Amino acid sequence: GAVVSQHPSWVICKSGTSVKIECRSLDFQATTMFWYRQFPKQSLMLMATSNEGSKATYEQGVEKDKFLINHASLTLSTLTVTSAHPEDSSFYICSANRGRVNQPQHFGDGTRLSIL
Amino acid sequence: GQQLNQSPQSMFIQEGEDVSMNCTSSSIFNTWLWYKQDPGEGPVLLIALYKAGELTSNGRLTAQFGITRKDSFLNISASIPSDVGIYFCAGHATSGTYKYIFGTGTRLKVLA
Questions:
Q1: What confidence tens digit (pLDDT) does each residue in B5-42 have?
Q2: Which helix (H) or strand (E) is A23 found in, with range?
Q3: A112 touching B, CB under 8 A?
């Protein structure tokens, strides 16, 4: 069964709205979670590493003030797309690691974000 | 960001045929993963490889960790229509970080 839950699965909103996406590890504690963005027919691009109890680590070119990440507990990380615009429309996917650094990441089902 | 090269980029095959795809890197990895992604969903882990030369199977899927540690291979035997999707490899290289680098993906279409 699923080990990572992502919510919502689909969002449509107006330009200028802020959107929050949740990522939960269901049966394990995840000190580290990841947020990816995926454009149609492309691979996953890592946006940031979410660290429980500390600031997220953003990849080069990702705007920290645009994509706010909060990892307030060992089972929940949130990504907030602030003042979203049409160019922010994409498929956002989170993942979590169950244990040691080289253990596989388990992914949520993704959130389809459409900004009108 | 950095990505791994996957080949082929896409492939059409007949049901029942075997499929082979590979993933290459310019640097050494200590872990290789293979995922399958269906449309509109997140990737699902298929196989994890942790040692050079390791050969691991999961049903009709077999993956190998290349001896050079710079590549990995995935084979699917006797393909069926539900094998359609995008297959991604992912490599872990840097100790002390949980980050994986993902491949460009191989899009598989199976003709019944």
A1: 999 999 999 999 999 999 999 989 999 999 999 999 99
A2: strand A19-25
A3: yes
C-alpha closest to that of A69 among A83, A56, A54 = A56
**For residue A98, what pLDDT is reported?**
77
Check: CB of residue A67 under 8 Å from CB of residue A45: no
Residues of chain A with pLDDT under 70: 1-2, 101
Which chain A residues touch B88 with a CB distance below 8 Å?
Answer: 43-44
Judged by CB atoms closer than 8 Å, whether chains meet at B45 and A60 is answered as no
**Angstroms from A57 CA to nearest CA on chain B:** 11
| pLDDT tens digit sequence for B61-70 | 999 999 999 9
Alpha carbon distance B106, A84 (integer Å) = 31
Give the span between the Cα atoms of A6 and B70, in whole angstroms.
33
Which residue is listed with tokens 């994986």? B100
Query: Residue B48: which pLDDT band, with cuts at 50, 70 and 90?
Result: very high
Positive or negative: CA dihedral B77, B82, B86, B89: negative
Gap between the Cα atoms of B23 and B12, Å rounded: 18
At B69, which amino acid appears?
R
- Chain-chain contact of B97 with A41 (C-beta, under 8 angstroms): no
